[in-house]
Automatic annotation (TrEMBL), chains A, B, C, D:
<protein>
    <recommendedName>
        <fullName>Glyceraldehyde-3-phosphate dehydrogenase</fullName>
        <ecNumber>1.2.1.59</ecNumber>
    </recommendedName>
</protein>
<feature type="binding site">
    <location>
        <position position="168"/>
    </location>
    <ligand>
        <name>NAD(+)</name>
    </ligand>
</feature>
<keyword id="KW-0521">NADP</keyword>
<dbReference type="InterPro" id="IPR006436">
    <property type="entry name" value="Glyceraldehyde-3-P_DH_2_arc"/>
</dbReference>
<dbReference type="GO" id="GO:0043891">
    <property type="term" value="F:glyceraldehyde-3-phosphate dehydrogenase [NAD(P)+] (phosphorylating) activity"/>
</dbReference>
<feature type="active site" description="Nucleophile">
    <location>
        <position position="140"/>
    </location>
</feature>
<feature type="binding site">
    <location>
        <begin position="139"/>
        <end position="141"/>
    </location>
    <ligand>
        <name>D-glyceraldehyde 3-phosphate</name>
    </ligand>
</feature>
<feature type="binding site">
    <location>
        <begin position="11"/>
        <end position="12"/>
    </location>
    <ligand>
        <name>NAD(+)</name>
    </ligand>
</feature>
<comment type="similarity">
    <text>Belongs to the glyceraldehyde-3-phosphate dehydrogenase family.</text>
</comment>
<dbReference type="InterPro" id="IPR020830">
    <property type="entry name" value="GlycerAld_3-P_DH_AS"/>
</dbReference>
<feature type="binding site">
    <location>
        <position position="110"/>
    </location>
    <ligand>
        <name>NAD(+)</name>
    </ligand>
</feature>
<keyword id="KW-0963">Cytoplasm</keyword>
<dbReference type="InterPro" id="IPR036291">
    <property type="entry name" value="NAD(P)-bd_dom_sf"/>
</dbReference>
<dbReference type="InterPro" id="IPR000846">
    <property type="entry name" value="DapB_N"/>
</dbReference>
<comment type="subunit">
    <text>Homotetramer.</text>
</comment>
<feature type="binding site">
    <location>
        <position position="302"/>
    </location>
    <ligand>
        <name>NAD(+)</name>
    </ligand>
</feature>
<dbReference type="InterPro" id="IPR020828">
    <property type="entry name" value="GlycerAld_3-P_DH_NAD(P)-bd"/>
</dbReference>
Length: 340, 340, 340, 340
């Protein structure tokens, strides 16, 4: 059993914890919080030992009926590997302590690429990560792009990618961030930084990305356009997507035309936390014009798509499974995850 | 086993179906849809026999891989009782067919009060509904008001109620309805129709309600002010709420101050479809000024609070359980529902 | 003086009326409404003779203190030309009456292209419209696309255009339409109908468009990508835009990065109804990659950009001004409109 | 001519500047900004001398084509009175410099009451402010409440007020603040701080307020309930409101039922920046139940209602006009402001 600590039990951390707990070869030895909140009660409810960043706050947790197992340092010492899911930028500050205790560490997409030895995506570069000391699971948007670009590249070769990312303003439980009634260019300049981020995993891909932020909470929406190297057909592309176990197709018969309805669907399916772990590619949008010009819309659930990638990254760094497909299959199976 | 048909498998109907399926004394003998959609796939996935309103559409369902059990009339014939969860106003049109086949029927709050023999809330008037041929489960807002007013009335006597309802614009999966950036008075006139609707269940209550609609999807928010007959204290009121099994208290320690965060909490708790079946009363808001003037904020999950009421209404009409508390306990237990 | 009637005094109609009234060579001989509303008071306040669709409603207008000049037919008879700004699809139904009285007519983008003899944009095809009996001013989105594509095409030649339109859900005063919290693909299929609509004005342009709808009210946002025929530079493109009198550049120094802030700026500038009549191209976004690959973001104020085009269309159909530049200059000057 | 400096040329400051410039007895001797932005260009466009907080930034302004008149201290020295419209809390930090130069100062509602000698509302306590050295114009919400409560109190006597404030999340040009899809209790506790703030102007009023924040940008919406001392009628209350020159009635005939449509109306009326300077009381909502229980809905334009109050506060502090009605009349007239 791989002993996993999750440092930062928030939007990403709480999902990683449940996903780890579901795996046959891993266990959660602790999760961490900075202050009392609803999520601390959830940690207790799940039975995860709760460690806290500032041990002086122990009393405030105990008053609220939440037992404290110790401070974050103690948690790290007990772990084989730490998944750092603290807010963007905090991970880099935490790195020295993981190094001090010689613990393997996985960082999230809010960190710069140089926080870790490798930027990771299970389908694209699992093998390169095997045995490494640290990895960064690329951001939700980058993960979504990498999955589809890598799949196209393997099948047809990708000459050039142009993607427009229409991003959610804040996560559903975020009551501070807007915008309320605006489309915000973020950044105004073209290209955005997402292209270079894709290249941390797929260095040979020629890609231009544009990004904006809109008032929605449930998922990002991408338009992906790719010039393919080989001529192909819409059906051939759909076949590639259908056979990919982290790309789902939103079919016409569902009448789903938005992130909101797609979330309702995953909710109805009983997915934990309504998570859409896969790319939600809209089947009707998949187009190949003039034989080589690919287009599609895809919904990317920012809170969810990186979760299975974190699990695979754990196995890759620990070196317990050397076949990417084997790890991906194990992860999906333990989650009860079959792409829609 | 009570044989239950659910006519209209949408936002309310799909939840009622799952809740019925969870009860030890009931079974879902069929659900109905008008056309192919994501929800039709969910019915199939759950194993509910699917009946369709217009049998001419059978082919379109079967092409989409969804088996059709027959038309709605056949479903009704097989049932002991029908839960009508069709859109507001359609229930009244369906009534003659339930009468034709002498089936008991439960309608929803989108219908006028005269659609059924009684307007129903489990805690308030279960006994009066026993053995009746039809009942209307009052709307989400009215259910939320009735629960808290009835509890206060039982404990302290209620002289007068003033409530302001800040309503969600549309359900989360509704992509048509707004507003996008507006507060809409609905109606502009004061009082709104919600007061009279409360009186269909609690006829003796003096109540003035005001209502508006805002751009949110997750829950309504109510401010409830009541002049009490007996002097009391904040603690005594909290005790009444704590001992009520369909009123939950959102505590300060959770740091939840909004519908959005409350929904995240029910989602983290693993509630099916993130449902908040109970009233979400904010503990910190519960106030008693000058001994008799009660105030609170409560969140009402429009999609969920009426679900357990539908289950109790089934037992009341069927006359299988005569003690309201017994039915409420059975319903909650089968749902795994313990108020937060 | 050209006698102009405006049939349909709503979002577009009321703006056209004010713009006509500001021109030295035109006068508003009447505007029309179907029922009493805030806009009827505005017509009165502006001193525009108000005609009504259904003369039976005369009393309801007069009770509300709004004098009625007659019915729509009378208005049409008095006019030289009618600007039809009724809701999409109603224009086509109104066409026979314009023909009956042999009146020239201008329709809006909510109508199909075949409603009129020509689809119109002042910079692109004014001359072809001269003397015609009817014209359709293309939609807000199409007008925005045509301006920038035509300018690029004139200067550098355009090989291919790919545009993604992120559309506002409803106009600011629309309290019915959503979505509240969703990104809606509209349509899901690729390409959208906007490309063909551009080709009603610029038939030789190879263009693929994608469209979605988001919860904002103020403006659409476009990403425009064009493969140019001639090599060029960012500066050369900026120069083309700067010298275009219906394209404005949103400079970096303003710190404007969104439709919301751009609207605040036009409001601060004292523009009537805060109208952004020009394309709002974000200067920082203007990019030329590899010499021939153009990119930019542009904000398109749906309520406003078609207004000056309607004015020019009046002159073209009436044949009073034969030089497009002369008409455009007259229109802009009378509006006090200098592109930002 | 009263020489007025406006320190902080943002949402409130830019409106105060235009309002001052419109008065016959005042002039704007300068406005201040901290950094280059769209508003700096507006100051230039209006011809207001621009002073900057940090004179080291002079070059960045000049590079952007915006002349700098000097630093804030120089501006203050030239003024008879300073209107401080810096962000909440900054005013208190600025106070010592106004004192140093013995300048009268007006602060905004984002400051604590003790920032100034008096909390001000023109109709309620103009006379008490005459000749004072400093005043705080109470916040947008408090101004809106004070106007209507004071008017009712003068006419009928007010026993008790209960008000629920449904507040806009951010101003229209604010792209950072949310919420996107939430109703946020702010605060969760009851009563909110708005009641005590009303009492800084009307100390004898018994008032309980509740407040929440919703995803809208245009205006706050209040429900006001008051127990009156004298019996009265709806018509008598409407008469009081009609004769009040800073309360407007939104009539039924306009079909306006929301803040969004009300804003469209002020925009159509040509109000500068679409400002609703008055309380927008919905005529249909005005109710008197049982002779003494008053109810209404009112829309409060957060950016605008305090503007005329600032102008009156200038005259009161300067002591140039001793009759409140005279100042209010002068202010309104110069603005071309007749309540709707
Ligand atoms: N939310 C998303 O949509 C999303 C998607 C992909 C990647 N990410 C990335 O995942 C990371 C986490 O983001 P999130 O959205 O889960 O953030 P979050 O704010 O929801 O959760 C962060 C958690 O870390 C805890 N924390 C903060 N400081 C800490 C410290 N010093 N030590 C220990 N714990 C601390 C907080 O209490 C909180 O529980 C970021 O790098 C982010 O960029 C987020
Ligand atoms: N959604 C809520 O928030 C909410 C809350 C409380 C009560 N209600 C009430 O519950 C009822 C149902 O509302 P909903 O939100 O679930 O609606 P919905 O639109 O989500 O679902 C209605 C379902 O009925 C089906 N249907 C439509 N016409 C039909 C017909 N003639 N025969 C059979 N099926 C038909 C539709 O296919 C759909 O699946 C309404 O009375 C509503 O007022 C809704
Ligand atoms: N609103 C936009 O963003 C926008 C942008 C570009 C083009 N358009 C197009 O402009 C046209 C008008 O749109 P709008 O947004 O101004 O609509 P609107 O609903 O705001 O206004 C339409 C007006 O027409 C009146 N009307 C309705 N039926 C009528 C009839 N039979 N006879 C006379 N008057 C009638 C209504 O009272 C209303 O005042 C449509 O074709 C639309 O597609 C709209
Ligand atoms: N916006 C509203 O809805 C509203 C309504 C009523 C009252 N108020 C109050 O008015 C005040 C101003 O609010 P606002 O919304 O106009 O803020 P804002 O942020 O729009 O404008 C503040 C301006 O002050 C400038 N500024 C910041 N620090 C400064 C400093 N140290 N010296 C000089 N200038 C400085 C900024 O550049 C900006 O232009 C606050 O007290 C606020 O609470 C605001």
């Amino acid at each position: 059993m791989i002993k996993v600590a999750i440092n930062g039990y928030g939007t990403i951390g709480k999902r990683v914890a449940d996903a780890v707990a579901a795996q046959p070869d891993m266990e959660v030895i602790g999760v961490s919080k900075t202050s009392v909140s609803a999520e601390a009660y959830i940690a207790k409810e799940r039975g995860f030992p709760l460690y806290i960043a500032d041990i002086e706050k122990r009393e405030s947790f105990e008053k609220a009926g939440i037992p404290v197992a110790g401070d974050v340092e103690e948690m790290i010492k007990k772990a084989d590997i730490v998944v750092d899911a603290t807010p963007g930028g905090v991970g880099a500050k935490n790195r020295p302590i993981y190094e001090l205790y010689k613990k393997k560490a996985i960082f999230q997409g809010g960190e710069d690429a140089d926080v870790a030895e490798i930027s990771f995506n299970a389908h694209a570069n699992y093998k390169e990560a095997i045995g490494k000391q640290s990895a960064r699971v690329v951001s939700c948007n980058t993960t979504g792009l990498v999955r589809v670009i890598h799949a196209l590249d393997q099948a047809f070769g990708v000459e050039k990618v142009r993607a427009v990312m229409v991003r959610r303003g804040g996560d559903p439980n975020d009551i501070k961030r807007g915008p309320i009634d605006a489309i915000v260019l973020n950044p105004v300049t073209i290209p955005s930084h997402h292209g270079p981020d894709v290249r941390t995993v797929l260095p040979h891909i020629n890609i231009v990305t544009l990004a904006m932020i809109v008032p929605t909470t449930f998922m990002h929406m991408h338009t992906v356009q790719a010039d393919l190297k080989k001529e192909t057909t819409r059906d051939a592309v759909l076949e590639v997507f259908r056979s990919h176990n982290r790309i789902g197709l939103v079919t016409k018969a569902t009448k789903i035309t938005s992130n909101a309805q797609l979330r309702e669907y995953t909710q109805d399916l009983g997915r934990p936390r309504t998570d859409l772990w896969e790319n939600g590619v809209f089947e009707d949008s998949v187009s190949v014009l003039d034989g080589k010009e690919f287009y599609c819309f895809q919904a990317i659930h920012q809170e969810a798509d990186v979760i299975p990638e974190n699990i695979d990254a754990i196995r890759a760094l620990m070196g317990t499974v050397n076949d990417p497909d084997e790890s991906i299959r194990m992860t999906n199976e333990a989650l009860g995850f079959v792409a829609i």
